[in-house]
Specification:
Elements: H1 2-48, H2 54-74, H3 76-96, H4 105-115
Helix pairs in contact: 1-3, 2-3
């Protein structure tokens, strides 16, 4: 009888842990999709931004960079999702943006960053170095 209670408690603990893990995974996925969607919306706004005042536009981009920097400090996974969304949105816009698009110099400077964004915290390649040492006898030649 004692074993049945222990087995039941262990089974209940296992089930509750698996349900909790699944809920956390769903929340993480919701957070990632939220930040990707937010990035796409921000990119659409940035692409439609037409400011006659250079100072206002510089302030806007400064605020945007500050937001991205704060997001990176606060939550790296959300930042990665946000930057992926921005990169996708800018790449999609570049497909049909030609002479009819009139973007500012500031825009093109920041757009270049989004086109070429790569998370440098994760190396693209991993190198494994191996050192092999083979000992050989020393041979000396002398005249005497």
């Amino acid at each position: 009888m004692k074993y049945i209670g222990t087995i039941t408690a262990m089974l209940a603990l296992f089930i509750s842990a698996s349900v909790s893990a699944q809920e956390n995974q769903e929340k993480e996925q919701d957070k990632i999709s939220y930040y990707e969607q937010r990035a796409k919306e921000d990119a659409v706004y940035e692409q439609s931004l037409a400011s006659n005042n250079d100072e206002d536009e510089k302030d806007f981009w400064k605020d945007q960079k500050r937001y991205e920097k704060d997001l990176r400090k606060r939550d790296k996974e959300a930042y990665k999702a946000y930057m992926k969304g921005k990169q996708d949105a800018y790449a999609e816009h570049a497909q049909h943006c030609d002479d009819h698009c009139h973007h500012s110099r500031e825009y093109y400077g920041h757009a270049h960053f989004y086109y070429t964004y790569y998370d440098y915290n994760y190396p693209r390649r991993t190198y494994v170095g191996t050192g092999v040492r083979v000992s050989s006898p020393r041979v000396g030649i002398s005249i005497f």
